[in-house]
Amino acid sequence: xxxxxxxxxxxxxxxxxxxxxxxxxxxxxxxxxxxxxxxxxxxxxxxxxxxxxxxxxxxxxxxxxxxxxxxxxxxxxxxxxxxxxxxxxxxxxxxxxxxxxxxxxxxxxxxxxxxxxxxxxxxxxxxxxxxxxxxxxxxxxxxxxxxxxxxxxxxxxxxxxxxxxxxxxxxxxxxxxxxxxxxxxxxxxxxxxxxxxxxxxxxxxxxxxxxxxxxxxxxxxxxxxxxxxxxxxxxxxxxxxxxxxxxxxxxxxxxxxxxxxxxxxxxxxxxxxxxxxxxxxxxxxxxxxxxxxxxxxxxxxxxxxxxxxxxxxxxxxxxxxxxxxxxxxxxxxxxxxxxxxxxxxxxxxxxxxxxxxxxxxxxxxxxxxx
Length: 370
Description:
370 residues; alpha+beta; Aminopeptidase; seven-stranded mixed beta sheet; four-stranded antiparallel beta sheet; 10 helices; 22 strands
């Protein structure tokens, strides 16, 4: 210990480190005063404390940056998805059927008339089962599927209107099948449906190609088959039994099937119910399709559906994008109940096989009008 240390009456314990201000050495060892008590205690070097404070100052800005980025992404991504969906929705074709749509009149439910047409536009000869779509002479588009989706808080239903239902054509006043009323335009078909007593609030129309794209975009639709099934006219061919996932082509062949056969006991047996059996299959498929579509939680898939449908989807001009998104959101946990419209077959004086409304049909129609 040198004279300077003695003159101050202080001694250093441990190595002869040079004391620093505050009563500690440069290595952080403690310094004892004249009475032997500690003057100051520092368990870490001075430089270490400065480094920790600097690190803390650096960490806080980084955390703020990360939080800011997360916040921006949380806002921008949904907004961008919504904007893309809106842009694609506005690109879809619309049809003005406002003169034929029903007024609300205090009804609790909303009815969507969903029409599938047999337009061949956009079907390539190289597509699988293209022969099922391109065969035959077809002038213009005809309705191949007519569905009424009834939505209300008490529960939703899906009802198929048989294309062979015998009605009066609103445009001509002549009797004929309801699908033939589409020849005079969508509004005429809407009037034919409302003349049955079924109000129509919105109109949606989809063609062959868009229907297949919709199914493929959703990853296919699963249908339960009790037996192997086929229809050599529509192109349907299912060898498996039980739940079978159908792609867009096979799904279309399934809902269009009018010559449906089942493989039972080693032989193919034709469905004897004809168009009635077809409407039953359509209701089952529409139910599965709606459940799949409304179960989508991925916003990219949800807002991308209008783009996947392309030009083949037509909606009435009063159905806006916000209405469509709200409808999809309200249906996310809804499982529409398939409801049959009772019909009975008969043959006209001219030899045409048609269907008339049967016993109990008015009960179903009254529920759709509620």
